[in-house]
C-alpha cells in the first residue's frame, strides 16, 4: 500500500489540500504521513521555539482528526522549523511513495521562495504534488 507524505502547516485543512488527499484515496488504498514544520508564527513579533511547536502540534492534531474521521489511515509529527530538514527527518524514518506539499500562493509563501516542492522532488526522486491553498483558509 503506498504511503504519501504530506508537508503543510498553515494550509492544513484547506479545501485544495483536502481535495488532493481525496483524489489520492480514490486511486486505491493508501496511507498518509503528515509533517508539520514548526515554523515561527507570522502573527507574533516575538516567539519561542516552544510556541511554534505548540501551534504546529495543534494544527497537526486537527488535521489527523479530520482525516481519520473520513476513514483515512494517517499518522504524523511536528518537524523541524526548516521544512527541508523536517522532510529529511521523515524520509530517514519512513518510506514514502509520493509527496504532497501544500503552500500559500506565490508572493505569500516562504516555501515557494525556497522552491520547496522542486527541491523535494530533485532530492528524493519522488513524485510531488504541489497544492496551493487560498489565504482565505489561513
Per-chain topology:
Elements: E1 3-7, H1 15-26, E2 31-37, H2 49-69, E3 73-79, H3 83-93, E4 98-103, H4 110-113, H5 116-124, E5 128-132
Parallel strand pairs: 1-2, 1-4, 2-3, 4-5
> In DSSP terms, counting alpha (H) and pi (I) runs of 4 or more, how many helices?
5
The largest sheet, given as strand count, sense and whether it forms a barrel, is: 5 strands, parallel
Number of domains: 1
Unreliable spans: none
Going by helix content, strand content and strand pairing, the class is alpha/beta
Element-by-element helix/strand order: EHEHEHEHHE
Taking all Cα atoms into account, the compactness measure Rg is 14 Å
The CATH superfamily turns out to be HUPs
Description:
The chain is α/β, with parallel strands linked by helices and 138 residues long. The protein has a single domain, classed as Rossmann fold (3-Layer(aba) Sandwich), CATH 3.40.50. 41% of the residues lie in helices and 22% in strands. It contains five helices and five strands. The chain has a five-stranded parallel beta sheet, sandwiched between helices. Helix 2 (49-69) links the parallel strand 2 and strand 3. It is globular. The N and C termini lie far apart (32 Å). The model has no long low-confidence stretch (mean pLDDT 91).
Amino acid at each position: 500500500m503506498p504511503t504519501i507524505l504530506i508537508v503543510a502547516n498553515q494550509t492544513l485543512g484547506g479545501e485544495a489540500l483536502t481535495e488532493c488527499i481525496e483524489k489520492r484515496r480514490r486511486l486505491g488504498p493508501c496511507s498518509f504521513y503528515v509533517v508539520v514544520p514548526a515554523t515561527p508564527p507570522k502573527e507574533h513579533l516575538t516567539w519561542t521555539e516552544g510556541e511554534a511547536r505548540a501551534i504546529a502540534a495543534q494544527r497537526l492534531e486537527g488535521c489527523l482528526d479530520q482525516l481519520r474521521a473520513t476513514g483515512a489511515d494517517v499518522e504524523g509529527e511536528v518537524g523541524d522549523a526548516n521544512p527541508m530538514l523536517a522532510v529529511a527527518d521523515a524520509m530517514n524514518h519512513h518510506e514514502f511513495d509520493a509527496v504532497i506539499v501544500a503552500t500559500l500562493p506565490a508572493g505569500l509563501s516562504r516555501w515557494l521562495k525556497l522552491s520547496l516542492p522542486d527541491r523535494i522532488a530533485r532530492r528524493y526522486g519522488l513524485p510531488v504534488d504541489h497544492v496551493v491553498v487560498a489565504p482565505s483558509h489561513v
